[in-house]
Amino acid sequence: MNLPDKYEALVITLSDRAYRGEYEDLSGPRIREMLNDFFITTGWDHNISMSLIPDDAVLLTNLIKEAAESCNFIFTTGGTGIGPRDITVETVAPLLKKEIPGIMEMIRVKYGTLKPAALLSRGIAGITGNSLIYTLPGSVKAVGEYMTEIVKTLEHSVYMQYGIDRHTKS
Fold this sequence. Notes:
Layout: E1 6-14, H1 16-19, H2 27-42, E2 45-53, H3 57-67, E3 73-77, H4 88-92, E4 98-99, H5 101-114, E5 125-128, E6 131-136, H6 140-161
Parallel strand pairs: 1-2, 1-3, 3-6
Antiparallel strand pairs: 4-5, 5-6
Helix pairs in contact: 2-6, 5-6
């Protein structure tokens, strides 16, 4: 299987208040910035689209199902906590074909050691359709922490997803 000539990514921010215009979405743009840096480093041609929606499971499901056909990467920000409007994990989990639990577990442990509140994030990662999908918390600081760890695995994840063996034999 060949790698794509151009990578498509979608960043979805889930926030009732940002959607209503009560404050500016900073987390989605932070993901886009860090993802763009990753693509520049790898030399991969790319396009990153953004979407801002309220905390709505039907909207999120429809957006992910549509994007999973054409996007290589889907990132969500917001809705991974334990609040009554936090619906991202419950919405995304049934859409996953394969879950990738290790990355999110490691992030929670690494940052939860310093800040126990970080252990309350329920973010998940996996594959849906043709897309790698990652659900991140809504705080800009947490997005920076999560993306710092996720981008370390993205290139290898793509190779694995496309069945390309980049392991060295030693």
